[in-house]
């Protein structure tokens, strides 16, 4: 009989409204408590700001080997494999390099970005003071204090910092226009801009140095080929190839925006990108009211059927 009573115990909409009305005071009180908690939670969140930039491939200086293909198989005769690179593929390599382990490792270490990427908790716009997570870094002692198991150390490695950096860095290429959109989000709006500015400078240097090293190897190989070659026509062609390569080398050394040129440069963001506290409080308070109502309806229903003990007996 008890099981039949449990199985058949249902209530209609009118009874549901009756239960809600009966528990209205409890529902309101719990909703207010949840709302107050939501307000404190929203206020505890630090503001974050997003800086952005728009870039494009620098077609005037992008590394490409079409000059070698114009001379036919001469490069191969000279013992040089120049491949079939194009500006499009070099552009993709540049984009991929922006998030690569080696590039970002060097970027983080050379600029000493460990602390401001990994341990910042908040930033005060009025005072310009940066607060750091005390569980990670002790400002007074100027040392890392995070508790971590080996092989990790209290001070995070460049690879750990890279992962944190990538969580707030977006790299988005528009396949139709070819434009590259970079954004970085941080508690300090000045630092957000600094990161993008630095990334643009460093990736251009990184790609430029890579190609300069290649052009220098090509020139060295061509000069060596001239020394051992006896065919005057071939020597003349090799010098032509060498001249073209030296022009590319000179352009690479002189260019600042070697791989990527700035279309829209990063700025210090004036408006926060997160959190939207008023929206958070409203949405979470509504959810709190719904939760409170459901909780007391279920609680009342459990009491009506005989309590938790009856439910456990039924489940057995």
Describe what you observe in this structure.
With 316 residues, this protein is α+β, with helices and mostly antiparallel strands. Helix content is 58%, strand content 12%. The protein has helices spanning 2-7, 13-22, 24-44, 66-70, 74-77, 87-98, 101-111, 114-118, 158-167, 189-228, 232-254, 277-304, 308-315; strands at residues 49-57, 120-124, 129-132, 137-138, 143-144, 169-173, 180-186, 260-264. A hairpin with a 4-residue loop joins strand 2 (120-124) and strand 3. Mean pLDDT is 80; it is low at 1-9, 63-74 and 83-87.
Structure summarized in a few sentences:
By secondary structure, this protein is of the alpha+beta class. The protein has 13 helices and eight strands. The protein has helices at 2-7, 13-22, 24-44, 66-70, 74-77, 87-98, 101-111, 114-118, 158-167, 189-228, 232-254, 277-304, 308-315; strands spanning 49-57, 120-124, 129-132, 137-138, 143-144, 169-173, 180-186, 260-264.
Which outline best applies? elongated
The main pleated sheet reads as: 4 strands, antiparallel
Strand percentage: 5-15%
Class from helix and strand fractions: alpha+beta
End-to-end Cα distance:
16 Å
Helix content: 55-70%
Strands ordered across the widest β-sheet:
6-7-1-8
Low-confidence stretches: 1-9, 63-74, 83-87
Mean of residue pLDDT? 80
Cα-atom radius of gyration: 32 Å
Number of helical segments? Answer: 13
